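User: Just a sanity check before I run the rest of the batch. Below are the structure tokens for the first item. I only need the designed sequence back.
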């Protein structure tokens, strides 16, 4: 890492799916005027890229090559909705599909894929600062983050949130099936050998089960102020 990059502050927000970290990371980044890295989207993009080239069942080395060659761009449309491009074509819908999340979770357990994505993730560290959301932002990718937050919520609450999100999009999934998927994915993410989902030793734990999104965002912004992270 260059000396310049090392001086750019990072806030790491890690936690399981449905903890609200994506929305909260976005709000914190907007409030500070900082860049945002949604690292889960990168694992999902590897899954999309592999599927597009008919290599969903490819061996680890091949998936790692796909990861190393990812050409991605993030943005928002006029309605403020997220847009994601892979090699110049839009794949926002595919990236957020449930199957893509499941495949990403399997791909994320492969050490060579994780290594292949390290540099790409660190490249998002740009002035004036970065809010990075994922599973191992504080522990592996940006261990020198000025603030590390580990956001949790009960599995039941996370399933309910995801259910509502999908329903709002017109997607009908049964709540018990969703709970099972979330528990399966949690297990896979926390039991895997490489970069398991676990708080960094110096992370601050924040349980969002009974808090609004705004209250969680405000707690993090208060920590940012107290820690004097913004230069
Ligand atoms: O947060 P998400 O659901 O978009 O992440 C998709 C998958 O990628 C999820 O199963 C966990 C994995 N992931 C990871 O292993 N490390 C990260 N930094 C981000 C996501």
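Assistant: Here's the designed sequence for the first item:
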């Amino acid at each position: 890492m260059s000396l310049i990059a090392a001086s750019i502050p990072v806030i790491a927000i890690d936690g399981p799916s449905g903890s609200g970290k994506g929305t909260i990371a976005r709000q914190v980044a907007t409030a500070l005027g900082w860049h945002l890295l949604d690292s889960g989207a990168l694992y999902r993009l590897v899954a999309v890229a592999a599927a597009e080239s008919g290599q969903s069942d490819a061996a680890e080395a091949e998936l790692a090559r796909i990861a190393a060659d990812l050409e991605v761009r993030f943005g928002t449309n006029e309605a403020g909705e997220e847009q994601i491009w892979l090699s110049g074509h839009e794949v926002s819908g595919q990236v957020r599909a449930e199957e893509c999340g499941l495949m990403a979770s399997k791909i994320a357990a492969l050490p060579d894929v994780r290594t292949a994505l390290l540099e790409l993730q660190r490249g998002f560290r740009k002035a004036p600062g970065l809010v990075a959301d994922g599973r191992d932002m504080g522990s592996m990718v940006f261990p020198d983050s000025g603030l590390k937050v580990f956001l949790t919520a009960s599995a039941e609450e996370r399933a309910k949130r995801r259910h509502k999100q999908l329903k709002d999009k017109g997607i009908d999934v049964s709540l018990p099936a969703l709970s099972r998927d979330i528990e399966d994915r949690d297990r896979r993410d926390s039991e895997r050998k490489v970069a398991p989902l676990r708080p960094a030793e110096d992370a601050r734990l924040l349980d969002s089960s009974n808090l609004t999104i705004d209250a969680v965002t405000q707690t993090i912004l208060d920590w940012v102020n107290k820690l004097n992270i913004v230069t």
